[in-house]
Structure to design on (370 residues):
């Protein structure tokens, strides 16, 4: 084999094995709250099912598909929440597949008008790749095409690893004194989540097919938002809510160095009118727009069950599209995402079944779109 061909092939495989990658992100980032921050597990009463389906860059080879499913429930007598989540990602023409299942626990420290949620998460992940579907340069003949066998060290076609994460969320319930028809009440939150704790505090999991001790870099997520119900007309019974939110994610071996880490900033707001929800968000690598980065605008529309009917099942269904303004460009196919959240409110917690005579209302329960 010509030395140049072999060198090129080796470099390609090496890069595939050790290249720094960013975790999956969701455009409707708090539609699947347990994926945003493990401290959100069990935020609402009943048994809740969350699902997110993301299809990205459809016009590229193989594209990118990501699915996140979660089941969570609240145990108010224990001030706790529990969750089970499953994730799946397919990318490229090989394809490279990543599967994972996780367990989440959250504890709520209840205060008078505030609550602090603490969450921990464990995940078991598996990655696979089909090397036979890839063609390397040393396999190509200038006349007959792919006729040779590759001499590249292909490594494993399957690997597994364990992972850990944690998060904390502070939630506040406030009331403002004003006119009868003005701002009445708002709920706010600030959260911090850290994924891949091993890489931040020690030796993280090795995700390299060549087993070259390539760690998954730690990912830090800072997010905040508020829910502001508004009433504009006297005697109006319409539910009108505005909810501004932002998210800042950074991932890398120098997580606090935003210039060297993979960073995503998202900011915008949701508008809720009765059961209809509209959202607009701006996404970029930095807070200040730059032509050097891939900037996009997320537009979403959704529907939710009327939250006044607390004894009935509730749901949220949302569809969004990310339109690239520059960088990857609109010819890549943009990003489409579908989210469904369904809450079986009539299902009683395990703790209440064991202590039927004892009841406790969860402080700061999420009664509005959140």
């Amino acid at each position: 084999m010509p030395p140049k061909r072999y060198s090129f092939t080796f470099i390609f495989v090496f890069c595939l094995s050790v290249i720094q990658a960013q975790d999956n992100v969701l455009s409707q980032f708090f539609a699947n709250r347990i994926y945003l921050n493990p401290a959100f597990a069990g935020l609402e009463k009943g048994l809740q099912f969350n699902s997110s389906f993301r299809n990205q860059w459809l016009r590229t080879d193989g594209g990118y598909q990501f699915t996140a499913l979660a089941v969570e429930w609240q145990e108010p007598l224990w001030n706790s929440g529990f969750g089970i989540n499953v994730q799946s990602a397919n990318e490229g023409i090989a394809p490279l597949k990543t599967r994972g299942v996780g367990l989440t626990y959250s504890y709520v420290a209840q205060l008078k008008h505030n609550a602090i949620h603490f969450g921990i998460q464990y995940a078991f992940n598996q990655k696979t790749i089909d090397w036979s579907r890839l063609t390397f340069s040393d396999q190509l003949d200038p006349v007959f095409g792919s006729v040779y066998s590759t001499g590249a060290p292909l490594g494993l076609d399957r690997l597994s690893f364990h992972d850990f994460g944690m998060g904390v969320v502070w939630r506040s319930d406030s009331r403002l004194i004003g006119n009868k028809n003005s701002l009445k009440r708002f709920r706010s939150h600030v959260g911090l989540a850290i994924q891949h704790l091993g890489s931040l505090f020690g030796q993280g999991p090795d995700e390299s097919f060549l087993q070259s001790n390539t760690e998954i870099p730690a990912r830090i997520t800072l997010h905040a938002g508020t829910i502001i119900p508004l009433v504009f007309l006297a005697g109006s019974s319409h539910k009108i809510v505005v909810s501004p939110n932002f998210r800042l994610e950074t991932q890398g071996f120098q997580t606090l160095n935003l210039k060297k880490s993979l960073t995503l900033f998202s900011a915008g707001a949701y508008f809720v009118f009765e059961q209809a929800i509209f959202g607009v968000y701006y996404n970029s690598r930095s807070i200040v727009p730059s032509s050097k980065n891939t900037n996009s605008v997320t537009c979403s529309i959704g529907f939710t069950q009327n939250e006044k009917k607390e004894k009935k099942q509730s749901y949220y269904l949302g569809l969004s599209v990310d339109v690239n303004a520059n960088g990857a460009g609109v010819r890549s196919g943009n990003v489409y995402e579908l989210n469904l959240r369904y809450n079986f409110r009539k299902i009683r917690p395990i703790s209440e079944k064991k202590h039927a005579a004892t009841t406790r209302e969860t402080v700061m329960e999420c009664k509005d779109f959140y």
Q: What stands out?
A: The helical segments are 3-18, 33-36, 197-201, 350-354. The longest helix spans residues 3-18. Residues 190 and 224 are 4 Å apart (CA to CA).
